[in-house]
Design goal:
By secondary structure, the chain is an alpha+beta fold. The protein is about 60% helix and about 10% strand.
Protein backbone atom coordinates (compact mmCIF):
# COMPACT_ATOMS: atom_id res chain seq x y z
CA UNK A 1 0.00 0.00 0.00
CA UNK A 2 1.39 3.37 -1.00
CA UNK A 3 1.80 5.79 1.91
CA UNK A 4 3.10 9.32 2.31
CA UNK A 5 4.43 11.01 5.42
CA UNK A 6 3.16 14.30 6.84
CA UNK A 7 6.37 16.33 7.07
CA UNK A 8 4.84 19.69 8.05
CA UNK A 9 1.54 21.31 8.98
CA UNK A 10 1.58 25.10 8.72
CA UNK A 11 -0.93 27.92 9.21
CA UNK A 12 -1.46 29.80 5.95
CA UNK A 13 -0.30 33.42 6.00
CA UNK A 14 -3.23 34.81 4.02
CA UNK A 15 -5.88 32.94 6.00
CA UNK A 16 -5.12 31.84 9.58
CA UNK A 17 -8.18 29.58 9.52
CA UNK A 18 -6.60 27.40 6.86
CA UNK A 19 -3.76 24.94 7.17
CA UNK A 20 -1.22 23.77 4.60
CA UNK A 21 -0.32 20.08 4.76
CA UNK A 22 3.02 18.92 3.37
CA UNK A 23 3.62 15.29 2.41
CA UNK A 24 7.16 13.98 1.86
CA UNK A 25 8.48 17.53 1.96
CA UNK A 26 6.08 18.98 -0.63
CA UNK A 27 2.85 20.97 -0.29
CA UNK A 28 -0.03 18.51 -0.80
CA UNK A 29 -3.29 20.26 0.08
CA UNK A 30 -4.94 22.93 2.21
CA UNK A 31 -7.52 22.29 4.92
CA UNK A 32 -9.75 24.37 7.14
CA UNK A 33 -8.55 24.12 10.72
CA UNK A 34 -11.82 22.46 11.74
CA UNK A 35 -11.21 19.70 9.19
CA UNK A 36 -7.68 19.24 10.52
CA UNK A 37 -9.00 18.82 14.05
CA UNK A 38 -11.72 16.44 12.92
CA UNK A 39 -9.25 14.32 10.99
CA UNK A 40 -6.85 14.19 13.89
CA UNK A 41 -3.77 14.09 11.70
CA UNK A 42 -0.36 15.30 12.89
CA UNK A 43 3.20 15.70 11.69
CA UNK A 44 4.84 12.33 11.25
CA UNK A 45 1.63 10.45 10.42
CA UNK A 46 1.63 8.08 7.46
CA UNK A 47 -1.30 8.58 5.08
CA UNK A 48 -2.49 6.09 2.50
CA UNK A 49 -4.02 7.27 -0.77
CA UNK A 50 -7.40 6.19 0.57
CA UNK A 51 -6.95 8.19 3.78
CA UNK A 52 -5.86 11.26 1.82
CA UNK A 53 -8.98 11.01 -0.32
CA UNK A 54 -11.17 10.73 2.79
CA UNK A 55 -9.61 13.91 4.17
CA UNK A 56 -10.08 15.76 0.88
CA UNK A 57 -13.71 14.61 0.68
CA UNK A 58 -14.33 15.96 4.18
CA UNK A 59 -12.73 19.27 3.23
CA UNK A 60 -14.97 19.53 0.16
CA UNK A 61 -18.09 18.79 2.20
CA UNK A 62 -17.21 21.49 4.71
CA UNK A 63 -16.47 24.02 1.94
CA UNK A 64 -19.82 23.20 0.32
CA UNK A 65 -21.59 23.81 3.61
CA UNK A 66 -19.83 27.15 4.09
CA UNK A 67 -20.73 28.19 0.55
CA UNK A 68 -24.37 27.28 1.19
CA UNK A 69 -24.39 29.31 4.41
CA UNK A 70 -23.06 32.35 2.55
CA UNK A 71 -25.78 31.95 -0.07
CA UNK A 72 -28.45 31.75 2.65
CA UNK A 73 -27.05 34.89 4.26
CA UNK A 74 -27.94 36.78 1.07
CA UNK A 75 -31.51 35.47 0.86
CA UNK A 76 -33.64 32.44 1.67
CA UNK A 77 -33.48 29.66 -0.92
CA UNK A 78 -35.16 26.36 -1.61
CA UNK A 79 -33.23 23.10 -1.34
CA UNK A 80 -33.05 22.84 -5.14
CA UNK A 81 -31.83 26.41 -5.54
CA UNK A 82 -29.02 25.79 -3.07
CA UNK A 83 -28.12 22.49 -4.68
CA UNK A 84 -27.99 24.06 -8.12
CA UNK A 85 -25.73 26.88 -6.92
CA UNK A 86 -23.36 24.43 -5.23
CA UNK A 87 -23.15 22.34 -8.39
CA UNK A 88 -22.43 25.49 -10.39
CA UNK A 89 -19.58 26.12 -7.95
CA UNK A 90 -18.16 22.73 -9.03
CA UNK A 91 -18.80 20.82 -5.81
CA UNK A 92 -19.28 17.09 -6.28
CA UNK A 93 -22.67 15.45 -5.81
CA UNK A 94 -21.65 13.76 -2.57
CA UNK A 95 -20.45 17.03 -1.03
CA UNK A 96 -23.60 18.84 -2.16
CA UNK A 97 -25.93 16.22 -0.67
CA UNK A 98 -23.97 16.19 2.58
CA UNK A 99 -24.09 19.98 2.89
CA UNK A 100 -27.83 20.13 2.17
CA UNK A 101 -28.53 17.37 4.68
CA UNK A 102 -26.54 19.24 7.32
CA UNK A 103 -28.44 22.47 6.73
CA UNK A 104 -31.75 20.60 6.88
CA UNK A 105 -30.68 18.97 10.14
CA UNK A 106 -29.91 22.41 11.57
CA UNK A 107 -33.27 23.75 10.35
CA UNK A 108 -31.63 26.26 8.04
CA UNK A 109 -33.40 25.01 4.94
CA UNK A 110 -37.02 23.89 4.93
CA UNK A 111 -38.96 24.01 1.69
CA UNK A 112 -42.31 24.30 3.47
CA UNK A 113 -41.16 27.32 5.49
CA UNK A 114 -39.52 28.79 2.38
CA UNK A 115 -42.72 28.42 0.35
CA UNK A 116 -44.85 30.16 2.96
CA UNK A 117 -42.38 33.03 3.32
CA UNK A 118 -42.14 33.38 -0.46
CA UNK A 119 -45.91 33.54 -0.80
CA UNK A 120 -46.30 36.09 1.99
CA UNK A 121 -43.56 38.29 0.56
CA UNK A 122 -44.92 38.07 -2.97
CA UNK A 123 -48.37 39.19 -1.79
CA UNK A 124 -46.82 42.33 -0.31
CA UNK A 125 -44.09 43.18 -2.80
CA UNK A 126 -45.40 41.92 -6.14
CA UNK A 127 -48.95 40.55 -6.02
CA UNK A 128 -49.51 37.79 -8.55
CA UNK A 129 -52.19 35.33 -9.51
CA UNK A 130 -52.18 31.80 -8.17
CA UNK A 131 -51.19 30.43 -11.59
CA UNK A 132 -47.96 32.44 -11.77
CA UNK A 133 -47.17 31.84 -8.11
CA UNK A 134 -47.49 28.07 -8.53
CA UNK A 135 -45.26 28.21 -11.60
CA UNK A 136 -42.56 30.16 -9.76
CA UNK A 137 -42.63 27.84 -6.76
CA UNK A 138 -42.38 24.74 -8.96
CA UNK A 139 -39.40 26.30 -10.75
CA UNK A 140 -37.71 26.49 -7.36
CA UNK A 141 -38.01 22.71 -7.10
CA UNK A 142 -40.79 22.56 -4.52
CA UNK A 143 -43.13 19.59 -4.27
CA UNK A 144 -46.88 20.07 -4.83
CA UNK A 145 -47.58 20.09 -1.09
CA UNK A 146 -45.11 22.91 -0.45
CA UNK A 147 -46.30 24.80 -3.53
CA UNK A 148 -49.80 24.85 -2.10
CA UNK A 149 -48.45 26.06 1.25
CA UNK A 150 -46.94 29.00 -0.58
CA UNK A 151 -50.14 29.79 -2.45
CA UNK A 152 -52.21 29.55 0.74
CA UNK A 153 -49.82 31.94 2.51
CA UNK A 154 -50.01 34.45 -0.35
CA UNK A 155 -53.78 34.70 -0.07
CA UNK A 156 -54.19 34.20 3.67
CA UNK A 157 -54.73 37.88 4.48
CA UNK A 158 -56.43 38.91 1.24
CA UNK A 159 -57.86 36.54 -1.36
CA UNK A 160 -56.73 36.47 -4.97
CA UNK A 161 -59.73 38.40 -6.26
CA UNK A 162 -59.29 41.25 -3.77
CA UNK A 163 -55.56 41.46 -4.47
CA UNK A 164 -56.22 41.59 -8.20
CA UNK A 165 -58.80 44.36 -7.90
CA UNK A 166 -56.56 46.38 -5.60
CA UNK A 167 -53.60 45.96 -7.93
CA UNK A 168 -55.73 46.88 -10.93
CA UNK A 169 -56.90 50.07 -9.24
CA UNK A 170 -53.34 51.17 -8.51
CA UNK A 171 -52.22 50.33 -12.01
CA UNK A 172 -55.13 52.13 -13.62
CA UNK A 173 -54.14 55.35 -11.87
CA UNK A 174 -50.68 55.19 -13.46
CA UNK A 175 -52.33 54.97 -16.89
CA UNK A 176 -54.45 58.09 -16.49
CA UNK A 177 -52.60 59.96 -19.25
CA UNK A 178 -53.54 57.36 -21.87
CA UNK A 179 -56.77 57.07 -23.79
CA UNK A 180 -59.25 54.67 -22.22
CA UNK A 181 -58.75 52.17 -25.03
CA UNK A 182 -54.98 52.08 -24.56
CA UNK A 183 -55.26 52.11 -20.77
CA UNK A 184 -57.65 49.16 -20.85
CA UNK A 185 -55.32 47.15 -23.06
CA UNK A 186 -52.30 47.96 -20.91
CA UNK A 187 -54.13 46.96 -17.74
CA UNK A 188 -55.56 43.79 -19.27
CA UNK A 189 -52.13 42.66 -20.48
CA UNK A 190 -50.49 43.59 -17.18
CA UNK A 191 -52.91 41.50 -15.12
CA UNK A 192 -52.53 38.50 -17.41
CA UNK A 193 -48.74 38.73 -17.16
CA UNK A 194 -49.10 38.72 -13.39
CA UNK A 195 -50.78 35.34 -13.67
CA UNK A 196 -54.37 36.22 -12.89
CA UNK A 197 -56.93 34.07 -14.67
CA UNK A 198 -58.69 35.18 -17.81
CA UNK A 199 -62.06 35.06 -16.05
CA UNK A 200 -60.84 37.26 -13.20
CA UNK A 201 -59.20 39.74 -15.55
CA UNK A 202 -62.42 39.91 -17.59
CA UNK A 203 -64.39 40.63 -14.40
CA UNK A 204 -61.99 43.43 -13.51
CA UNK A 205 -62.16 44.99 -16.96
CA UNK A 206 -65.95 44.93 -16.82
CA UNK A 207 -65.72 46.90 -13.55
CA UNK A 208 -63.45 49.53 -15.11
CA UNK A 209 -65.42 52.52 -13.85
CA UNK A 210 -65.37 51.20 -10.28
CA UNK A 211 -61.60 50.68 -10.13
Amino acid sequence: MNTRTITAIEIQKKDPNRISVFLDGEFAFGLHQDVLLECGIAKGDLLSDERIQQILDLEERKRAREKALRLLAVRARSRKELGDRLKQAKFGQSAVEWALAELERLGLIDDGVFARAFGQTRAIVRPSGAYLLRLELRQKGLCDEDVEKGVAAAFAEKNERDQAFELAGRRKRTLAALSEEKARKRLNDFLLRRGFSWDLVTEIMEAWDQL
